[in-house]
Amino acid sequence: MTRGWMLPGLMALCGLLAAGSQAASGAPVAAVVLLLVFVLAAGWLSPLAFPRLVSAARARERSAADGRAIIYWRAGCRYCLRLRVRLGRDARRAYWVDIWRDPEGAAAVRAVAGGNETVPTVVLDGQAHVNPDPAWVRDRLRAQ
Questions:
Q1: Alpha-carbon distance 56 to 127, whole Å?
Q2: Which of 52, 69, 111, 139 sits at a 20 to 30 Å CA gap from 13?
Q3: 15-24 — which CB contacts under 8 Å span 24+ positions?
Q4: Model pTM?
Q5: 123 secondary structure, DSSP code
Q6: Tell me: the pLDDT tens digits for 14-70?
Q7: 10, 29, 46, 54, 61 from 105: Cα distances, Å
Q8: How far apart are CA 44 and CA 5, in angstroms?
Q9: Residue 118: CA atoms inside 13 Å, Cβ hemisphere, count?
Q10: How far apart are the C-alpha atoms of 67 and 13, rounded to whole Å?
Protein backbone atom coordinates (compact mmCIF):
# COMPACT_ATOMS: atom_id res chain seq x y z
CA MET A 1 0.00 0.00 0.00
CA THR A 2 2.65 2.53 0.97
CA ARG A 3 4.85 1.79 -2.05
CA GLY A 4 2.21 3.23 -4.33
CA TRP A 5 2.24 6.51 -2.42
CA MET A 6 6.01 6.92 -2.06
CA LEU A 7 6.62 8.71 -5.37
CA PRO A 8 3.58 11.01 -5.09
CA GLY A 9 4.55 11.82 -1.51
CA LEU A 10 8.09 12.64 -2.59
CA MET A 11 6.75 14.88 -5.36
CA ALA A 12 4.51 16.73 -2.91
CA LEU A 13 7.39 17.14 -0.45
CA CYS A 14 9.67 18.50 -3.18
CA GLY A 15 6.92 20.91 -4.17
CA LEU A 16 6.60 22.13 -0.60
CA LEU A 17 10.35 22.63 -0.31
CA ALA A 18 10.60 24.44 -3.65
CA ALA A 19 7.58 26.62 -2.86
CA GLY A 20 8.95 27.41 0.57
CA SER A 21 12.26 28.43 -0.96
CA GLN A 22 10.53 30.71 -3.46
CA ALA A 23 8.29 32.23 -0.79
CA ALA A 24 11.28 32.88 1.48
CA SER A 25 13.08 34.69 -1.35
CA GLY A 26 10.09 36.99 -1.89
CA ALA A 27 8.43 35.36 -4.91
CA PRO A 28 4.97 34.25 -3.72
CA VAL A 29 3.55 33.81 -7.24
CA ALA A 30 6.40 31.50 -8.22
CA ALA A 31 5.87 29.61 -4.95
CA VAL A 32 2.20 29.02 -5.70
CA VAL A 33 2.92 27.95 -9.29
CA LEU A 34 5.65 25.51 -8.20
CA LEU A 35 3.47 24.03 -5.50
CA LEU A 36 0.58 23.61 -7.94
CA VAL A 37 2.79 21.89 -10.55
CA PHE A 38 4.23 19.47 -8.01
CA VAL A 39 0.85 18.66 -6.46
CA LEU A 40 -0.66 17.99 -9.89
CA ALA A 41 2.29 15.73 -10.76
CA ALA A 42 1.83 13.89 -7.47
CA GLY A 43 -1.85 13.38 -8.28
CA TRP A 44 -1.06 11.98 -11.73
CA LEU A 45 1.46 9.55 -10.25
CA SER A 46 -0.80 8.44 -7.41
CA PRO A 47 -3.23 5.53 -7.33
CA LEU A 48 -6.03 8.12 -7.41
CA ALA A 49 -5.50 8.63 -11.16
CA PHE A 50 -6.75 5.11 -11.86
CA PRO A 51 -10.28 3.70 -11.79
CA ARG A 52 -11.51 1.83 -8.73
CA LEU A 53 -9.26 -1.10 -7.99
CA VAL A 54 -10.28 -4.72 -7.55
CA SER A 55 -8.38 -7.80 -6.47
CA ALA A 56 -7.01 -10.20 -9.07
CA ALA A 57 -9.38 -12.94 -7.98
CA ARG A 58 -12.42 -10.68 -8.17
CA ALA A 59 -11.31 -9.27 -11.55
CA ARG A 60 -10.95 -12.79 -13.01
CA GLU A 61 -14.34 -13.77 -11.60
CA ARG A 62 -16.08 -10.70 -13.00
CA SER A 63 -14.23 -10.87 -16.30
CA ALA A 64 -15.34 -14.45 -16.80
CA ALA A 65 -18.94 -13.33 -16.29
CA ASP A 66 -18.99 -10.15 -18.39
CA GLY A 67 -15.95 -10.43 -20.71
CA ARG A 68 -14.29 -7.19 -19.60
CA ALA A 69 -10.53 -6.75 -19.85
CA ILE A 70 -8.23 -6.92 -16.83
CA ILE A 71 -5.39 -4.41 -16.64
CA TYR A 72 -2.55 -5.12 -14.22
CA TRP A 73 -0.64 -1.96 -13.25
CA ARG A 74 1.38 -0.33 -10.47
CA ALA A 75 1.62 3.21 -9.17
CA GLY A 76 4.50 5.27 -10.52
CA CYS A 77 4.76 3.30 -13.78
CA ARG A 78 4.93 5.78 -16.63
CA TYR A 79 3.67 3.21 -19.14
CA CYS A 80 0.63 2.50 -16.95
CA LEU A 81 -0.03 6.22 -16.67
CA ARG A 82 0.32 6.61 -20.44
CA LEU A 83 -2.20 3.81 -20.95
CA ARG A 84 -4.59 5.30 -18.40
CA VAL A 85 -4.44 8.77 -19.94
CA ARG A 86 -4.89 7.52 -23.50
CA LEU A 87 -7.84 5.33 -22.55
CA GLY A 88 -9.69 8.30 -21.09
CA ARG A 89 -13.24 7.37 -20.12
CA ASP A 90 -12.82 3.95 -21.71
CA ALA A 91 -10.57 3.01 -18.78
CA ARG A 92 -13.70 2.31 -16.76
CA ARG A 93 -14.55 -0.52 -19.14
CA ALA A 94 -11.75 -2.64 -17.64
CA TYR A 95 -10.89 -4.04 -14.23
CA TRP A 96 -7.70 -2.51 -12.79
CA VAL A 97 -5.49 -4.60 -10.50
CA ASP A 98 -2.62 -2.92 -8.65
CA ILE A 99 0.16 -5.52 -8.47
CA TRP A 100 1.78 -3.75 -5.51
CA ARG A 101 -1.40 -4.17 -3.48
CA ASP A 102 -2.33 -7.63 -4.71
CA PRO A 103 0.31 -10.40 -4.54
CA GLU A 104 -1.94 -12.67 -6.61
CA GLY A 105 -2.03 -10.04 -9.34
CA ALA A 106 1.78 -9.74 -9.24
CA ALA A 107 2.04 -13.51 -9.58
CA ALA A 108 -0.32 -13.47 -12.57
CA VAL A 109 1.86 -10.87 -14.30
CA ARG A 110 5.07 -12.79 -13.55
CA ALA A 111 3.47 -15.92 -15.02
CA VAL A 112 2.93 -14.26 -18.40
CA ALA A 113 5.96 -11.93 -18.45
CA GLY A 114 8.77 -14.42 -18.02
CA GLY A 115 9.07 -13.95 -14.26
CA ASN A 116 9.13 -10.15 -14.46
CA GLU A 117 6.51 -7.75 -13.14
CA THR A 118 6.18 -5.92 -16.45
CA VAL A 119 3.18 -3.64 -16.49
CA PRO A 120 0.81 -2.69 -17.89
CA THR A 121 -0.28 -6.19 -18.69
CA VAL A 122 -3.71 -6.41 -20.30
CA VAL A 123 -5.76 -9.61 -20.35
CA LEU A 124 -8.37 -9.67 -23.11
CA ASP A 125 -10.39 -12.75 -24.00
CA GLY A 126 -8.14 -14.85 -21.76
CA GLN A 127 -4.97 -13.79 -23.59
CA ALA A 128 -2.32 -11.62 -21.90
CA HIS A 129 -0.65 -8.71 -23.69
CA VAL A 130 2.39 -7.16 -22.02
CA ASN A 131 2.70 -3.38 -22.51
CA PRO A 132 0.35 -3.19 -25.51
CA ASP A 133 -0.23 -0.11 -27.63
CA PRO A 134 -2.80 2.13 -25.89
CA ALA A 135 -4.70 2.75 -29.13
CA TRP A 136 -5.11 -1.00 -29.63
CA VAL A 137 -6.38 -1.44 -26.07
CA ARG A 138 -8.80 1.48 -26.46
CA ASP A 139 -10.20 0.00 -29.69
CA ARG A 140 -10.63 -3.41 -28.04
CA LEU A 141 -12.37 -1.91 -24.99
CA ARG A 142 -14.77 0.03 -27.18
CA ALA A 143 -15.58 -3.14 -29.14
CA GLN A 144 -16.62 -5.01 -25.99
A1: 15
A2: 52
A3: 15/39, 15/41, 15/42
A4: 0.72
A5: E
A6: 999 999 999 999 999 999 999 999 988 888 777 777 777 899 999 999 999 999 999
A7: 26, 44, 19, 10, 13
A8: 11
A9: 12
A10: 41
